[in-house]
Prior knowledge:
The chain is an alpha/beta fold. It is about 50% helix and about 10% strand. It is built from 10 helices and 8 strands. Helix 2 (about 45-55) packs across helix 5 (about 130-145), helix 5 (about 130-145) runs antiparallel to helix 6 (about 150-175) and helix 6 packs parallel to helix 10 (about 275-295). The protein starts with a helix and ends with a helix.
Amino acid sequence: PVKAAAGAAGARRALCLLLCLAALACLQGCGEVQSEPVRVVASSFGGYSLAKAVAGEHAVVNLMSTQDDDPHGYQPDAFSIANLACADLLITMGEDIDTWLPELRRDIDRAQTVVLDLSAEGDPHRLLLPREAAAVALEVAQQLKTLDEQHGEDYEAAARQLSEQLEALDQRLAEALAPGFSFAVAGANPYGCLEELPGVVLVAAGEGCDEETEQWDEQLLERAREAGVQLLLFNERDDADEVQALSQELGVPALYWHALHMVPQKEREEGVTLLSLLEQTVTELEKYGHQEDKGE
């Protein structure tokens, strides 16, 4: 245990040293601050996608992970630390998920990097609700405008356009769930924010996706049946075979609701965005609602 603790402490010191060296290199290499574009680093796909849409061509937006790693348990490599050292704005899911954040907080503060914490409102997964994503888009625009007044109007215009699309999508979501809806959650549970919506009930084996999820047992299955669950939610962190087995056990369809943690680079290059993933989910919910209306 002593050796393990010493090794962990050494790793933390090395991480901080890397950040300091990267910050020095950044300061030496960036030249005039005014001539450099604003740099944004996001720890998850959700924040990255919003920032890309709002920033357009005026800012450089990167993901913290260079290897499409899930934010849970991720430890930054040297390249990621170099990106972070040069960042003007960091969009994080909060230290409960971005466990590296506390160790680097002092260096981030020293670099005067602006930190936008998605967990500040209590839920790091709030971007799963289109209305919350709309609000964050406007917040990102304000942060970018503060950092880069020259392109402030462009940031605001892009954020307004995206926000309007997300608000319209949120209205569709509200209509799809209007009669009230009961969901079961297959495994990792980032969906707590859904319980803010009127009439929505969740039956899940765990309260968050950052903790070890308990197994579905007969007692939980009975709870789901008593709640009259209509759909089984699952996301990119769940095992497909386990989802299929649970769907059959409950006798309800399974619905993929992306947790917005990470999207592979190939899919990002093909144009997958936060908006497109949320729209895909809402469209599937609407299809299910239409089937219910027809009694299918």
